[in-house]
Structure formats: structure tokens, C-alpha cells
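[Q] Does anyone have a clean C-alpha cell version of this?
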Amino acid sequence: MRIHILGICGTFMGGLAVLARQAGHTVTGCDANVYPPMSTQLREQGIELTEGYTADQISDEIDLYVVGNVVSRGNALMEEILNRGLPYCSGPAWMGEHILCGKWVLAVAGTHGKTTTSAMLAWILEDAGYAPGFLIGGVPSNFGISARLGVNPDEPSSFFVIEADEYDSAFFDKRSKFVHYHAKTAILNNLEYDHADIFPDLAAIETQFHHLVRTVPGIGQLVVNGREESLQRVLKRGCWSDKVSFGVEDGWHFKGDQLYFHTTPHGQLQWQLQGEHNRQNALAAIAAAMHVGITPELSLHALSQFNNVKRRMEVRGVVNGITVYDDFAHHPTAITTTIAGLRDKVGAGRILAVLEPRSNTMKLGSMKAALPAALAQADIVFAYGASSGRDALGWDLAEALAPLSAQGTPVFCFHDLAQMQQAIVEQARSGDSILMMSNGGFGGIHQKVVDALTLQLAASQQPAA
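[A] Here you go.
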């Protein structure tokens, strides 16, 4: 089959493209916004990319158009597909029918931590010899690729780990992606309000999670964060599968670095990751791995060798004692936990938080009031908001962050990335941690700051004339 993927550079659709190619399909695709690491991965896989959504991409050689949820009515290519009556489907529907059918699917759902937890779970299965397939919304460092079919993809007992997003499937299918996956093991990691562009309130998202619970078979298992009231409300609406909790004393939990299930100890967690949120992610992965027969001791061994996903506290460079980090955090809760994890690591060292609030939820401004508290542990805050184009904010950054300034934290807001880059370099000094947070490419500012710091250091070391 030859498929053409609309919105191919999104993390999910890009992973789907890799899987389709590995499965023997001919794959091409298009997108309007191309940036690493996904664009790099696709090119390395030999997948042809077209910039933009032009109607001339229609071809008699294409058997099916797979449509990402970034595409809406009015898109020139999509309108031509509809006008001609050509075959199309959503990405999640294609995954469910062509990749996941017959597999033991381990789905990782939740507002936060899906990518990291999926990567942990896939690595635990890999280290235990299960050779799983996976589709993860990032590039796990242990694998170097965001998606693969698995070593034995045609075996009916093969395992597949998938990041299970609650975002809608396509403009013509407003169900959450994860209802297409038919998970046998489902992690419900946490649940907060997000995606204000498609969900009116938290209750609407809880309904979608309830739909996910309805798809898990009786012989399946739900791995549930026992600390989340929202998830308890979801389960009260119906639960037809075995359930195991984590994060609470009557389930999987940590005391210090010691792992317990109820009162039974199972070994110590020894790894390089920081933050309570990552410890919760680890509990979820350990519990899910138990469902497929992997002991917690084996899981702990695997996690001791776990390297985080790219763009999750990824060190992009160290120059003159200044460390530049790249992180995907964009929701206030994720921003809070990311900064808290870094604070635990650096102690009294200065944290320069650099934020681009560009998610659809953030652009709508529904969570702007939570940003000052989320950034409170930073020593200096730099914020960027595009003044025009698809990523333009509909609200004033400086006004939203004024409470932080009033508390004495220096806050600098910009509409120009070059100006922000210069300001960051001017403020940074040896011992600082520069934490870049965005769910987009952020104009490549991570490397630009590293390069500028390198030039600054070289200039300072030049002998006086």
C-alpha cells in the first residue's frame, strides 16, 4: 500500500510513518511546520517530505491518505481529497487496524509523563528480552528512534507499547486517539485539565478516559495513579478489568529509594533521573511490566540503565560552567515539576527559566494565571510569545507574569527570539542552569544560545591587543 500522511512531522504521525515503512508500505507525507528531531528521523528513514498542503500532491498512485489532527477543513489538500471522494482515515484508526491488531497493547495515558513513562516501559520490556514494538511521542535515548514494529511483529503474542493521547483523532473523528488502540494493559498516569481548544472542562476529558476504560478487556489491567481524584471519578463510572494502584501505600510506592508493593520490599531504584514526577512514572512502568510477567527486580535493573527521552531535561551543551537544558514542558504542572526536579539537582545554583507558551491551551490563555506559581522556583524568567502567525498569543505575557515580578523575580518578555537570545547570554554566568521549555522547535534557540556562549567564552580568552 502507498500512503500519504498529512501532518507527518507531528510526534504521533511521524512515528506512524516509520512504522508504516517498516511494515512494507510506501510512505510519503507533508506538513507545514518541519523541525527536529522528527524531521531528522523521517529523512534518515528515507521518507519523502513535502512542505505545505498543496492540492497537486494528489496522485493516482496513492492508495490511502492518513490524516493527522493538525489538519482541518479549508486545508487545500484535504478539500481536494474530499471533493474527489478519495479514501482517507485518521492516524489512530490506521494504527489500530494495521499495526496494533492482534498485539498485546500496553497503552500509557495521562495529562503528564506519557512520553517518559512509555519510554521507560518499552525499555523495561526490551531489557527483559521481550523485544517490543512501540510508538512514543519523542525519541527515547535507549532506542534512538520514536517507533518500531518490534523484532517479531507478526507473532500474535508480540507486545506493543504506545503513548495513548487523549487529544482528538481527526477533524472528522472527535474521539480521543486512545480509543482506537484496544489496550490490554492501560496506564492511567494522571488527569488534569488540558487541551482547552477541544475540551470545555475536566469532566469532558474524564468522559474520554471512561471510554478508554471501557475498551480494556476483562483479562486486561488498569494501572492507576492512586493519588488522582479525577481518575477515581473515572473508575466510579465503571471498571471491568483488574486494577492496580501506584503512588499510594496500598499499591506500588517508594519509601526513599526502596520500592514496595503494599508492605513487601522489592529492591532499590538507582538511576540518573531527577524529580518526584519521574519516580511516579517509574512506578507506573514497573506495575505495567508486572502484568506481562516482568518482575520488579528486573524492572529496577532496566531503569538503572534508562536514558531519558530527547527534549526531557536533555543537556544541549555546557559552556564555561553554564548548562543549557531542553525540555518539552508546557502545561503549568509540567513546568512546576520540571523546575522542581532541576532545583533538587542544582540546589542554590541559579535557574534561568526560558518559556515559550505555544500549546493550543496556552495560546488560548486558559492557564496563564497558573504560570507565575509554576515558575516560582526559577531565579530569572525569560518568556517568548510570537506577535503574529499560527503561534501568536492571544494575551499579554508581561501582564500574566506581573505577579512573579512583584515577588522580586526578574522577568523579561520578548516577541523577538534574537533579542531574547542576547538577553539570556548577557544574564548567564558560570554555575547557571538555563532551562528552555517549549513543545515546539523554539526557533532553535537552544543551540543558538550554546553557540553564543561559546563565542563569548572564546572572546574573553583572547589576549589583550
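[Q] Thanks! Anything notable?
[A] The chain has 16 helices and 23 strands.
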